[in-house]
Amino acid sequence: MISVLYAFLLFAGISLILGAMLAIASKIFAVKVDPRIPEVVECLPGANCGGCGFSGCSACAEAIVRGDAKVSACPVGGQQAADKIASVMGVDAGTVVRMRAQVLCSGTHNTAKEKYNYEGPYDCAAAMRLGGGPKECPNGCIGFGSCVVHCTNHAITVINGVAVVDPEKCAGCGVCVETCPKHIIKLIPFDAKVHVGCSSPDKGPLVKSYCDAGCIGCRLCTKVCESGAIHADGFLASIDYEKCTSCGKCAEKCPRKIIFVQDGTYKIEA
User: Fold this and answer.
1) Fewer CB near the terminus (10 Å): N or C of the chain?
2) What CATH architecture does domain 36-89 belong to?
């Protein structure tokens, strides 16, 4: 009986000592959390989309507090979130330009030539490993909708073989940009009215051989643009949105009709 009591007291004593040691260790090795981090997290939309370049909203908040990211780092939260975070951080948020995704391809089933009948997983990444997809254009939209699957805002649909973004639903997170294996989805200013519907850098004759709706690098658009907003990188036209006035002259002059002026609701017709 005495041995049992002794064992119990010994066990209790050891437990108390270990408990005390753990309590002391927790205080010594405790990681101090900057109180601004949870405040910044509250300012973020909670999308955890990764569009900021970090793993989620908490990681983004930590980076902002550390000074490794701007208060405007969250593309989804936009100006409103940036202003709230700036208030927490005691800085000026500045002006945040809202962005939206734009698919730079017009190669529908009607215009883009196909090189083979694809039989495989209906996934753009998988198609890239199986010859780059059925379209002959190496820079054309595969149209299998991997961007659709990854868009948490349901802003993308595939119409006639080409992914199309609904600007009003797009949060500008950039997930689709990272998802697209052809890298033909770009973020442009939300208010931009003009875009070049092609991503092919190839010479005109080659582009004509595989698509009836590709840029041939004729540079007629650059010559008619009075603001110097459109220029040709090799054989592909691109737009400087800081200079573009949305006059539409480039679209009128384009012989391939792949420069579009729109009100934000443009859809590729089936």
Assistant:
1) N
2) Orthogonal Bundle (1.10)
Could you tell me which of 222, 205, 140, 175 has the C-alpha nearest to residue 56? Answer: 175
| Residue 129: Cβ within 10 Å count | 11
* pTM, two decimal places: 0.80
The C-alpha atoms of residue 143 and residue 62 are separated, in whole angstroms, by 37
Return the CATH class of domain 99-261.
alpha beta
| Annotated domain spans of the chain | 36-89, 99-261
Chain position carrying tokens 């609701």: 265
In this structure, the number of other CB atoms found within 10 A of the CB of residue 41 comes to 19
pLDDT 10s digit of each residue in the chain, 270 long? 566 666 666 666 677 777 777 777 666 655 577 899 999 999 999 888 888 889 899 999 999 999 999 999 999 999 999 999 999 999 999 999 999 999 999 999 999 999 988 888 999 999 999 889 999 999 999 999 999 999 999 999 999 999 999 999 999 999 999 999 999 999 999 999 999 999 999 999 999 999 999 999 999 999 999 999 999 988 999 999 999 999 999 999 999 999 999 864 444 444
